[in-house]
Amino acid sequence: MKNIIKFLEADNAWGKFIKFLEANNALENFEREFTKSGRDMEYYKAKCEKWNSGELGEAFTWEDSKEGHRYWAVLNAKWREESKSLK
């Protein structure tokens, strides 16, 4: 499986999402959980393009993650707010 971060960074818009994860100390957590979920990266990117700010919500099941639902929900709310200016 390709490295999800390198795959997403190739696209400038996704680079902003990666920087957001880095700034919030969540990049390693995201990569670990996404990899663990076994999601297909092409499908994930296509699905996110259909949903505004869906990058976190579409990545994996939050309840099954090491950090839990609340961690990802708070981060997702912050991303949705910050990404409004990217639209």
Task: Describe it.
It is a single chain. The N and C termini lie far apart (30 Å). With 87 residues, the chain is mainly α. The chain is globular and about 30 Å long. The mean pLDDT is 77. It is built from 5 helices and no strands.
Short description:
The protein is built from five helices and no strands. The chain has helices at about 5-10, 10-25, 25-35, 40-50, 70-85.
Index terms:
single chain; 87 residues; mainly alpha
Report the span from N to C terminus: 30 Å
Q: Helical element count?
A: 5
The amount of beta strand, in percent, is under 5%
Helix- and strand-based class? Answer: mainly alpha
The 3D shape can be described as: globular
Question: What helical percentage do the residues reach?
Answer: 55-70%
Any low-confidence stretches, pLDDT <50, length ≥5? none
Mean pLDDT, nearest integer?
77
Radius of gyration: 12 Å
How many strands?
0
Largest sheet: none
Order of helices and strands: HHHHH
Give the helices and strands, then pairings:
Layout: H1 4-9, H2 12-23, H3 27-37, H4 41-50, H5 69-83
